[in-house]
Structure formats: C-alpha cells, structure tokens
Amino acid sequence: MSPLDKKMAVATRDAEATKIRILDAAEEEFAKGGLLGARTEAIAGKTDVTKCMMFYYFKSKEGLYQAVLERAVGRHIEALKKIDIQNTKPEDALRSLIAAFLEAAEHNQNLPRIFFYEGIQNKGKYYGQLATTSIYMQIVAVLEKGMAAGKFRKMDAMHTAVNIIGMCVFYYCHFENLKYLWPSGTDLLSRKMKDKHNDQTIEQIMASVMK
Description:
It contains ten helices and no strands. It has 211 residues and is mainly alpha-helical. The chain has a single domain (3-209), classed as Tetracycline Repressor, domain 2. α4 (61-81) runs parallel beside α7 (132-148) and α7 (132-148) crosses α8.
C-alpha cells in the first residue's frame, strides 16, 4: 500500500469513527426529546465536533435523525435474520423472535422512546420510511405458519404481531413510570427484574397463541 493509500485509509477510519460517535450521541439526545426536542449543540458537545462537521456528514438535523433510526432498525433486522423461521417449528421460531425483541429492548432502551416521540411529534412520518414492515412480517409469517399447522389458534396475525412487540418493549420504555407499582427502591432494570419480565412475557405470549 502506497503512503497515499495508507493516508486515505486512516482518514476513512477516522471519518467512520467520528460518524459513529455522532450517531451514538444523537441517539441519546433524540431519546430525551425526539426530533423536535433534541439540540444539535448538545450532540456536538458530546462528540467534540463542530455543528458544521456534524452537518457535513448528515446534512441536517433531520438527516441525522433518519440515520439514527435507520442504524437502529437495521441492527434489529440483522439480528432477526439469524433466526431460521423456515426450517424451525413455529412455536420454537416464535419463542426465538420474542427473545430477540426482548434482548433488543433491554440493550437499547433509546429506540422505543424515540419511536414514542416519533408518533407524537411527526405522526410516524419518518417511521413510515424505515424497513419496519419486514420486522412485523417475520412475526406474521411465523404466526400464519403456526395456524396453518394447527399449532396456533386462529387470530389476526398483524394485530397479534403488534401486540407481541408492544409486550416486549413497553416495560423498558416506561420503567420510570412503572417503578411506582413496586415497593420503593425496586430496581426494574436489575438482572432479576429483567429476567422476570422477559420470562413472563414469553410465557404469556406463547400461552395466548397456542391452540
């Protein structure tokens, strides 16, 4: 590799690292107040880059917002692709999908909050531009497969998919409110409480769909 090529490679790595820092900081900021409430000054301040540099990479606040959503949804889609729903029994495939959603909600509590603001502030404008349909359709496909095999009761597959995702993410999205339902001092994000939520969610969903 020539000196020029090495220099270009280093510049590319530095640029990618900078974009990742910006996206990480932006995700945190958008989770606090959505697109309208997020402050680009705060995002820039957390990353040690100027607003001009931030807009050089993402063009605008809206462009940065879209990039944050696309990255988060893309990661989730990639995780779900690892589940073989075609060659797995529907009940096992559904358990795996639920577990994947729970894991995603547990490790990225920002995304449900951002989507909450997205619905209120933007009426789903940016949500509708994402590949979220494919996420729901994986659950729908498993539910329809289970119904066809006589394993699952008859149901509206899309409504059920929406309810399944809701059960997975609601706890992690609203734990600051839900904590008042338990004795004072209970940490809803402790390993014990998260395991209890995850296990109960899987159990309840599976009981609701099995024939």
